[in-house]
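Q: I'm writing up a methods section and want to include an example of the input and output format. Could you take the sequence below and give the corresponding predicted structure tokens, formatted cleanly so I can copy it straight into the document?
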Amino acid sequence: MDRMIRVRGARVHNLRGLDVDIPRDQLVAITGVSGSGKSTLALEVIFAEGQRRFLQGLTPGQRSRLDRWERSEVDLVEGLPAAVCIDQRSGSTAARSTLATMTEIHSHLRLLFARVGQVHCTGCGRRLESRSPQAIVDVLQGLGEKRRVMLLAPVVSRRRGRQLEVFEQLATEGFVRARVDGELVELSPPPELDSHLDHSVDAVIDRVVIRDGLGPRLQDSVELALRVGSGRLIVSCEMPDGGWDDTLYSSRLACGECEWSAPPIEPRTLSFNSPEGACETCRGLGRVGEPGEESECSDCNGTRLRGLAQQVTFHDDSIVDICRLSVEEAHTRLSGWLESSEDDGTPESAVIRKVLPHLVSRLGFLERVGLNYLTLDRSTRTLSGGEFQRSRLAGALGSGLIGVGYVLDEPTIGLHATDSQKLVSCLEDLRDQGNSVLLVEHDLAVLRQADWIVDLGPGGGRRGGRLVVSGPPEDVMACSESVTGAHLAGRMAERPRQRREVDPGHAVTLRRANLNNLKDLEVAVPLGVLCAVTGVSGSGKTSLVSGTLVPLLSAELSGRKCEDVGTPAAELDWPEDSGLDRVVLVDQSSLGRSPRSTPATYTKIWDEIRKVFAQTRMARAKGFDSRRFSFNTDPGRCEECSGRGHVTVEMQFLP
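A: Here is the clean output for your methods example:
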């Protein structure tokens, strides 16, 4: 069967009526020089059309809640699978998003802890247990023959006052005796208590000697005690020495010492994205204060969760403890849990045997894509573009989807050579699961391992948008018109470049840098030269440059104190004749902050163009200034589209 994705007459952006056939269920690389139309073909034709057609299969009500994809400017696209895009254009902007939440590891952890975790009192730390009435009856019947037992319902616990109303209420309900401060008393007449002292009152529900045939009576007494005691019951057993020993049972998660009851533990109770689990002070952010002046929340100590969520443990670890581990450490610990678990037929055992393998598998995928150094609670806002993309790739591997088209935009960008092979191995696994994997790629090592290469060009911009060659790597290397083929075949060698001499004394020196995984780092960055910061994934490149050097240097040059602008703690020194006056950071974030933003407005070129038009004879005659030629302000922009160039018409319910 001919399994191909066929594109005919693609005219999006600089594509020139492109026709191309791409095999499905293969590892396909789209390459070419910058501006040749690689990302346009992959993202705005193949992915956009695949996503749009998939959404058409949903009901009108479901489509109304999703973004509607525009039809691409193309004559024909056929053979498309449902598409998933994994790009680097934007990391998650959600303040609460972490590595664990993005990869669904946190969802599985919450389910595990909610179903089999042990709850502890937030006051004294005592383990809380809940038992059904039948379970309590089974305990009583297992105490042994001729054992004298009292069933008590705790009504008042260490409360000051005479408690007359309590005694009268118990007498009205038909009770004859109560235990007050450890002593049995008659309720008629009511006992006299000192109003200035704390007292405890337990209603005597039943006094029995354990023997066969008491099951129905014990069942009724236990249910009555739980009702009167608001879900709590005291079983007081006579000891051989004549004393009595009390054991507190509860049908709810409750602490008898602190008189505190925990609500039912659900997965949302352990989520900082839910009101039930998020810290009330920081609302699940872990930090408080204005932007630039934030500090760790003192109530939750940066964990984002309220007290109850932190008191649920499994194998003596809370969900906070697990999320503070690195991927590698968490994988080791959870693998140990899985190996030590036993299938004893209980519901808890079934949950463990079902959830833990998924967790171990997903952590393993994160390790395979080279992210073993990241902690699970790492905010996705602090991930580099490559780390973010590989995290999503690990999530895709863990999903187990089949028959999907994965589109990846330059997945190896920013990767060290030692990490690229790990990534390619994961992409091959995705392909082998029965998926189509489509890459926009430049890395020659990756191109050589692709099953198929689509080379666009021959140049960029107006000289691009055409198909140069499409086929296996061998066909591309044999194509004389392909620049990519020439590099793959080794026909184009790098020209040696002349390097500037480096003056060791003319440098910016950074000391005691400890952001993220930097370990008391000291480094000198030479000035006046092209300096490259490199290293394997997780070595701290982004933390050093974007997270420490740039904000510290910007603060120093602007004359502001580092602590006032929220910059990391480190020492900075540079020569007086450095000539530095400002710092410009060019990162992977999106340039445009407005839907009307264009390259001309971002680079300020449009300001000069507007001034030129405002100085023309016709503009002066009409009294137009430069604002009349701006699509960002009212005098100049179109009233119909508000300067966007298109009008959005809600038609979600139409096919």
